[in-house]
Design a protein that fits this description.
heterodimer; A: alpha+beta; 7-stranded mixed β-sheet; B: about 130 residues; mainly alpha; about 0% strand
């Protein structure tokens, strides 16, 4: 079974040849120059601070702030080292005839949640065996496995938690390669096809793909649907740091969404146990043995991110504590077998979790200044201000340039604030803790809303900062002090921190999602089969396994039972539903309705889930990739300078259902994605060749609009399931009269 | 919950205001209206406490000097003005006021020296 010892036909690939640079050489050199300048200015600033600005009147305070800044310097240096060259992978074709096992680890997750993961795993196209590893010993999971046709493994104890569960299965299976998923991580049908090719290199021990989360209303996401921008707290890690580590052959296993080589794990009996982050620990052990790792930055699996603050903090505590404690067992700086770059990369991953204390110093500094009137800087003079501004400017500029649109400084600062106490606890447990840590499974459903305890440290900080502001205000007001500039600077800093603290508190206190299923932004055409609709069509605004929000041109009474036909790409799903709410849309005649589905059986649920994971999820992640305003402006200016500017009519995002007819008499339903005065684009379940003439009929509450249009392009929408294939079709509308009609709809819909 | 947190914060701020008064009652006493401070029998005690502070604003020192002058308590006035003059050595007006206070307190030799020094400074400035 060992690929490492297999015949030569399997050893034709060197995985290093699949690495390709993301940027052109000029941009790569610019990134490196920016990194060096940023670090050099930071070093000069620290030298100046250490030599001239430490305050002897408040030495302890001054040193604490200074050391926090020094910590920041190393943090930045490690970060820039890791992303020195960001690489992507070209995907080699998978070898044929490999024996692949798929492990899905579960403990107490909902069976409904697990069902879609198991189905996703079974539906992966490359031949494999799927095993559900149930540490919860639940009969309903066993029944699920029997129903879906996969194998069920369990054990009598829960020793070593997830890693122990995994190793138990490892000892009872024989696949040369093992793909592993958490219970909530649904793989795409082409997951194995995209990842197995790398194992043609006999030195590759693992291939990891990014973890993306489809519950975009989770705590760690911020979505700007209007500007089609998505912020995920882990974007920098998965889009920048891991591709950067991959350049140094230091990418590591992240616990789910990975394929591992059995022969590499055999010396350890599977995953390395003894810490609560078995993934990184195992990767480190493998790389010390000379094995290679591969990171493939493609959306091949999506899961659920923690919904509430307590679950989020608990997950981060486990990661931080586990990663730090690996140092005690397998110190990357001293362990034999690692390259210099691997040592730095692994140590950087551990060092990252130590920022709790420096952050606390920065959060406490402004209130301390306001209370005591003493500054950590001896003299707040012009030289200091200039040095600080130079440092700040080069830091921000280099960070932004190296991030290439991935990182957002303010959001990163916000999550640093959210995590500071957790990381402080992790550091304390690392330094002083002697007890073995416990693996706690992260809840993906959210808690019961009692999240105030999780943000108690933030409340304490808020209180302390408010008191300091009041104290300083009283002091200035009554004339106890007259340092208006000093108090002003500290007040500005304190208010900045206070804003972060209150935002974190607001995160934690937001109303929790009570729905059992995640709602996806999915716009599919809907017909109501038993409503005399006269050709009316509706469209979903969001869709879940349990219901949807339906936009319908007329109001439907709450309580009405409906027979719906959902057009899921080329597939039709007829199901019963009930109107549970209705609400008018602002500036539009369309009425939004909350619909609860009454699906007749698991088959209907499965078909709907397939459409969600294979159509809706890939489209969401493709849609939410608009560059930032700054990047768009830079591109517009460079296009203008290069003379390649193309003027297009303004486009308005609009999701409207319409009928498409061809001259051959074919007719099908589609939904628009955007409208302009010269045309529109729509998602179609059928491919239409460019140049063909089609008739589109759009019925809105304002009336019917019909026009002939020419297909100008048809590109397949992202997604791995051919049975759910859809196309993004661009149409040009010819004729003034038609455009006038569309303009009328535009005025109603584009504003909605 | 928010209401409870706000209530707790308001209570803590109230306690803090009390603590501020306890810590800085001398300064607060001097910050009320001028007439009240002039009539306050505890003024000398508060002024001495303020003058003993390592750090205090010019505004409070000016108030001490001003009220002490009104109350003919020249010793306190001189100490306050000396403190201001020490912090703001370029302020000629303060030195003149100090010289005036010394004269009114009967310390004529010191007053004369200050006047002469000030005249000398003025003529140096004029020559420049």
């Amino acid at each position: 079974v060992s690929l490492k010892d297999r015949p030569s036909r399997h050893t034709t690939l060197d995985a290093d040849t699949t690495l390709a640079f993301v940027d052109v050489p000029l941009r790569r050199h610019m990134r490196k120059a920016a990194a060096l300048v940023g670090l050099a200015v930071y070093a000069v600033y620290l030298g100046y601070r250490g030599l001239y600005t430490l305050n002897p009147d408040a030495l302890a305070f001054s040193l604490a702030v200074y050391l926090a800044e020094v910590h920041g310097f190393f943090s930045l240096a490690f970060y820039y080292f890791q992303i020195w060259d960001v690489r992507r992978r070209t995907v080699p074709a998978p070898l044929e005839g490999l024996s692949v096992d798929v492990f899905i680890t579960t403990f107490d997750e909902d069976v409904d949640l697990l069902r879609q993961t198991v189905r996703g795993a079974i539906n992966m196209r490359y031949p494999h065996r799927t095993f559900v590893l149930d540490d919860g010993r639940r009969p309903q999971v066993q029944a699920l496995c029997a129903e879906l046709g996969c194998e069920y493994l369990t054990r009598a104890t829960n020793e070593h938690a997830k890693a122990g569960n995994w190793n138990h299965a490892f000892a009872r299976t024989s696949g040369a390669l093992i793909a592993t998923f958490d219970a909530d991580h649904v793989p795409r049908a082409d997951f194995l096809e995209r990842t197995l090719g790398f194992f043609a290199d006999p030195a590759v021990a693992l291939v990891q793909v990014p973890q993306r989360y489809h519950n975009l209303d989770s705590l760690q996401h911020r979505v700007d649907w209007r500007h089609r921008r998505l912020y995920g707290e882990q974007d920098v890690f998965f889009n920048l740091v891991l591709p950067g580590k991959d350049h140094w052959n230091a990418s590591f296993f992240c616990g789910t969404g990975a394929v591992l080589r059995r022969v590499a794990l055999e010396p350890f009996g599977g995953l390395v146990t003894g810490t609560i982050t078995e993934d990184m620990h195992t990767s480190l052990a493998l790389q010390a043995e000379g094995w290679k790792s591969v990171y493939l930055n493609e959306l091949l699996v999506t899961g659920l991110a923690p919904m509430d603050f307590a679950s989020y903090s608990s997950q981060r505590l486990r990661w931080a504590e586990g990663n730090l404690k690996i140092i005690r067992r397998l110190n990357p700086l001293t362990h034999r077998g690692l390259t210099f770059a691997q040592r730095v990369c692994y140590f950087a991953s551990m060092y990252h979790w130590t920022i709790g204390l420096p952050k606390l110093v920065f959060y406490l500094a402004p209130p301390l200044i306001l209370f005591t009137g003493r500054f950590p800087i001896a003299e707040f003079d012009r030289t200091f201000v200039l040095m600080y501004l130079a440092h700040l400017t080069t830091l921000v500029a280099s960070y932004k340039l190296l991030a290439g649109g991935t990182g957002r400084l303010l959001m990163d600062e916000l999550f640093n604030m959210a995590n500071f106490y957790t990381l402080l606890v992790a550091s304390a447990r690392f330094l002083f803790g002697r007890r073995a840590s416990r693996f706690i499974v992260t809840s993906k459903r959210g808690g019961d809303g009692g999240d105030d305890r999780a943000v108690a440290p933030h409340y304490v900080l808020v209180g302390f900062t408010v008191l300091a502001l009041v104290w300083s205000g009283l002091g200035l007001g009554f004339g106890v002090t007259e340092d208006v500039v000093g108090a002003g600077v500290a007040t500005f800093w304190a208010i900045y921190n206070l804003t972060l603290m209150l935002t974190v508190a607001t995160f934690a206190r937001r109303p929790l999602q009570k729905r059992q299923a995640v709602r996806f932004r999915a716009t599919v055409p809907v017909e109501l089969l038993d409503v005399p609709a006269n050709g009316w069509l509706g469209v979903t605004l969001d869709l879940a396994e349990t219901g949807c929000t339906l936009l319908w041109p007329r109001r439907l009474m709450v309580g009405t039972r409906l027979r719906l036909r959902l057009h899921l790409g080329p597939q039709l799903l007829d199901c019963d539903g009930e109107v549970v709410s209705s609400h008018d849309r602002i500036r539009s005649e369309w009425v939004g309705h909350g619909i609860r589905f009454h699906l007749t059986g698991p088959d209907a649920v499965d078909r709907l889930a397939d459409a969600l994971y294979n159509m809706a999820v890939p489209e969401i992640f493709t849609r939410l990739t608009r560059p930032s305003w700054a990047v768009r402006m830079a591109r517009a200016v460079s296009s203008r300078l290069l003379g390649s500017t193309r003027f297009r009519a303004p486009r308005y995002e609009a999701f409207l259902p319409l009928r498409v007819q061809t001259r051959d008499g074919e007719e099908w339903l589609a939904t628009t994605r955007d409208l302009s005065q010269g045309g529109l684009s729509l998602v179609s379940s059928r491919h239409v060749a460019p140049g063909r003439l089609v008739r589109i009929i759009l019925r809105s509450p304002d009336g019917e609009w019909s026009s002939l249009a020419t297909v100008v392009r048809a590109t397949p929408m992202p997604g791995a399931d051919e049975s759910l294939r859809t196309w993004l079709v661009g149409l040009r509308i010819d004729g003034h009269a038609d455009v006038v009609g569309l303009r009328h709809i535009l005025s109603a819909e584009a504003l909605a | 919950m928010t209401l409870r947190l706000m209530t707790v914060l308001a209570l803590v701020v109230a306690v803090e205001v009390g603590a501020f008064y306890w810590r800085h009652h001398d300064v607060v006493r001097l910050s009320v209206s001028r007439g009240t401070v002039v009539a306050d029998a505890g003024f000398p005690e508060a002024a001495r406490a303020v003058l003993a502070r390592e750090r205090i604003s010019r505004r409070v020192l000016e108030r001490v000097a001003d009220v002490a002058h009104e109350r003919q308590e020249f010793d306190l006035q001189i100490r306050a003005l000396e403190r201001i003059a020490g912090t703001y050595p370029d302020d000629g007006q303060v030195r003149l006021r100090l010289a005036q206070a010394l004269r009114e307190a009967g310390r004529l030799d010191e007053a004369e020296r200050m006047y002469r020094a000030e005249l000398g400074r003025a003529s140096d400035g004029g020559a420049r």
